[in-house]
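Task card 7
Instruction: Convert sequence to structure tokens.
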Amino acid sequence: MRAIYKRELRGHFTNMTGAIAIAVMLLITGLMFRYYNLYNGVLSLHYAVSSSVLVFYIVVPVLSMGSFAQERRQKTDQLFLTAPVRLYEVVLGKYFSLLTVFAIPVLVLCIYPLVMTFFGKETLLWDYASIFAFFIMGCAYLAIGMFLSSCTESAVISAILTILFVFATQMLSSIFTMISSSSLAAMLFLVALSALLALLVYRMTRHYPLSIAALILLGGGFLAAYFLRPDWFSGRTESILRIFDFNTHFADCMGGVFSIPNLLYFLSYAAIGIVLTIQSLDKRRWG
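Output:
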């Protein structure tokens, strides 16, 4: 894993993706720090950090899009797929290299609270908790972006899918009011979600009967439940969508509610992304 980590980390700076990601993060966080803290005199850094989520729309796709898609397109992935090496070591080596590049500008961001101590009230604990939440959310996004990269040989498609995922998880809290809370809307949403899960099963296993069975069990089960107990679906859409609501959990951390559940929420997504990436590669190895 160490050799893979060193190779990937060197590659991020050889092809300039790492330098671009660091430059973009430093630019956006620096502009937010200047606007909120230096220009408007806000003593706490959490406003600048919460506004810096814009970096995820650029940095995460730039870093993760080529992690597996590029090697798959160039057929160089066959080297580790056929080599006597554990796939989890390959995935973790690549993932930790992504985290290292992402952590460099985050460490620079840690200097900003110390700068603000020269101007008045100290809010170091709150500031560093906000920065840590920012980093943990980045860990989750990078893991999912790496998984999406393993699903295609096009880096462009991987980047687009990653941007869509970031957009969806950041905007869900803003569109809850636009979603109908009726039982019929909830049932239709769950059936559509069942179709997406069945598609994911097929993408991961290439087993057509298994994906059809998953669709019938899930989609058919929701249809049957709607006719038996339609009241069960009332408000269920919003409850399910909150599972993907990164913004609310991040906002809780920005508001000073840095709880263990919020931390575990982002770490769970990071773990899911890593496991799905391993499964995707394992299927290609033996498929």
